[in-house]
Amino acid sequence: MRIITWNVNGIRARFSEVAELSRREQPDILCLQEIKATAAQVPEPLTGLPDYHSVWHGGPRGYSGVSLHVRRTACAAAPPCAPTGFDVEFRALELAVGPLRVLSVYVPNGNRDLPGKIAFLRALVAHAAAARAAGHQLLVCGDLNVARTDMDVYERMRNPRAVGQLAEERALLESVIAEDLADLLRDFDRDNPGLFTWWPPWREERRKNHGWRLDYILASRGLPASSCRVLTDVGTSDHAPVVAEIAVDLA
């Protein structure tokens, strides 16, 4: 099973890029964040993925919003591809796909509302703990807006007082991962100090690879993953997609 997560920073501006990514990579599960469209604006572009069962939260006034797309053949093999009810202010969406609970999540960046971000991360910890206690295999996919360690930030951008690098944020992310989850991207590229998924949209920072790692695929450790990588050449968002390959029996 191929899983892709991508903060598109506006689905209406980048739907053609999403469609091309889907055609090129053929993901079984596609998680998008910051679709930035109201419910009235969302259906036509996202239902333009005819091979997928699509669920989305458009968000109020075109703010934030996430979506989750499961290839229809996977839904046919593992009904019902149904929402499980985890939803925090249009920033999270979870589907049951066979034995999996797949979560597309956008953690708010916290620059304007750090207490709200901390509360969201705590809710994510509690949800991961409940999923583990219930025996579910979990995939947490999305923009978590926390750089896990200093190595996940370009050296000259490291700042322990910067939102996204705060000790409290990192501790909460570690608490999510501690619920028997693997950080697949780092597990497959442990010693790479240039493993980034977001770059400031100025001064050619992406070309120079001066960025942060903010986008994750966290998978229950019982799920055998064979790869996880950043698609640095894809799209015009300030984030790049992350893709993982996991062996899952959906029967």
Give a written overview of the molecule.
- With 251 residues, the chain is of the alpha+beta class.
- It has one domain: Endonuclease/exonuclease/phosphatase (Deoxyribonuclease I, Chain A, 4-Layer Sandwich), CATH 3.60.10.
- It is 25% helix and 26% strand.
- The protein contains seven helices and twelve strands.
- A six-stranded mixed beta sheet has the order 3-4-2-1-12-11. A six-stranded mixed beta sheet has the order 5-6-7-8-10-9.
- A hairpin with an 8-residue loop joins strand 5 and strand 6.
- Helix 4 packs parallel to helix 5.
- The longest helix has 20 residues.
- The chain is globular and about 50 Å long.
- The protein starts with a strand and ends in a 5-residue tail after the last strand.
- The mean pLDDT is 91.
From the structure above, extract its key features.
Deoxyribonuclease I, Chain A, 12 strands, 25% helix, 7 helices, six-stranded mixed beta sheet, alpha+beta, 251 residues
Produce a short descriptive summary:
The protein has 251 residues and is α+β, with helices and mostly antiparallel strands. It has a single domain, classed as Endonuclease/exonuclease/phosphatase (Deoxyribonuclease I, Chain A), CATH 3.60.10.10. It is 25% helix and 26% strand.
